[in-house]
Amino acid sequence: MDKKKIVLTGDRPTGPLHLGHYVGSLINRVHLQDTAQQFIMIADAQALTDNADNPEKIKQNIIEVALDYLSVGIDPNKSVIFIQSMVPQLFELTMYYLNLVSWNRLKHNPTVKAEITQRGFGETVPAGFMIYPISQAADITAFKADIVPVGEDQLPMLEQTSEIVRKFNRTYQCDVLVEPKVMASKLMRLPGTDGKAKMSKSLNNAIFLSEPFESLSKKVKRMYTDPNHLKVEDPGKVEGNPVFTYLDAFATDKEKLEEMKAHYQRGGLGDSVVKKYLLEVLEDFIAPIRTERARYAQDKEYVYRILKEHSEKAAAIAQQTLDEVKRAMGIDYFLEKVNI
Ligand code: TRP
């Protein structure tokens, strides 16, 4: 039998996860855990690279993200769910990889550049933030991940990782590190409730997996639709209309959805009717997640125990890779001493 593929993904714990995370990655993880050896990392150290002044926020969101994982069906008996900072081997690997990447190369990472602009860092960008792609290469290679399923904005990170893998193996004449493959995403990207391309907490256009019914209802009512669909009789546009994009993603009665789309395009179907249906559909989707989340939230001790045990398991694996890395570099000094 083929060896199980190793998959690694991660999230920065900067806020609770939303429908965009579900559609863009969580659903994929729920499926992958049945066939692959899956590692899911809560990237607290990476989150601190632009939140150094607020570690409390990161700490609180570690448990929120863990609750989100468990409540959507990521199974701790199938996936390893760990906290990045509890695996210090990752930071030692980072230190060695830093010497294999030029400063100039780092400065041109398009994702980091875009994030520096978004955050208004300019010249004050923390050094830790500049180098997080290298630390991400450590996350990926420590587990010898074959596959890293990520969205488009993370592709430069994977390129960076591949470069490091090749350079390491070439420089130290070994095949210790494994080059990861991107998982070509067949998944959709969910727009924000305001119609912007991306759902994001910081853009204030997100519906959370833990959204209470009252605020869900408010958010759906305020959603952006076709701005030219003024009167009920007017024909409306379905493409680029986030209400229909969400229905595409979450409605299970596809026949009803197709009828609604045709009616909307013809004219005679009001936004409020479509939104009422969307609210039903989303509530059907979120209600069981909310219930599961409340159940796990009652037993945070259990959740922390999983995180601790899984972090220990992850650390043991990362230590093996670190040992191989040091051996390949010839810096496993005390092991050598035995032979003197
Ligand atoms: N950079 C990723 C994000 O912002 C999080 C992350 C950290 C990650 N380490 C990773 C993703 C390793 C994939 C693999 O979402």
List keywords for this structure.
5 strands; 340 residues; 3-stranded parallel beta sheet; mainly alpha; two-stranded parallel sheet; elongated; Rossmann fold; binds tryptophan; Tyrosyl-Transfer RNA Synthetase
Structure description:
The chain contains 15 helices and 5 strands. With 340 residues, it is mostly helical. It has 2 domains: 6-190 and 300-329, HUPs (Rossmann fold, 3-Layer(aba) Sandwich); 213-295, Tyrosyl-Transfer RNA Synthetase. Strands 1-2-3 form a 3-stranded parallel beta sheet. It is elongated and about 80 Å long. 36% of the residues are buried. The mean pLDDT is 94. The structure holds tryptophan. Residues 8-12, 41, 43, 46, 136, 139-140, 148, 150, 154 line the site of tryptophan.
Q: Could you write a compact summary of the structure shown?
A:
The chain has 15 helices and five strands.
General shape: elongated
What integer is the average pLDDT? 94
Question: CATH top level of the largest domain?
Answer: Alpha Beta
Query: What is the CATH-assigned architecture of the largest domain?
Result: 3-Layer(aba) Sandwich
Structural domain count:
2
SSE layout and pairings?
Blueprint: E1 6-11, H1 19-32, E2 37-42, H2 44-48, H3 55-72, E3 79-83, H4 89-98, H5 103-107, H6 110-119, H7 127-130, H8 132-142, E4 147-148, H9 155-171, E5 181-182, H10 213-221, H11 242-250, H12 254-266, H13 271-297, H14 300-329, H15 333-337
Parallel strand pairs: 1-2, 2-3, 4-5
Bound molecules: tryptophan.
Residues 8-12, 41, 43, 46, 136, 139-140, 148, 150, 154 line the site of tryptophan.
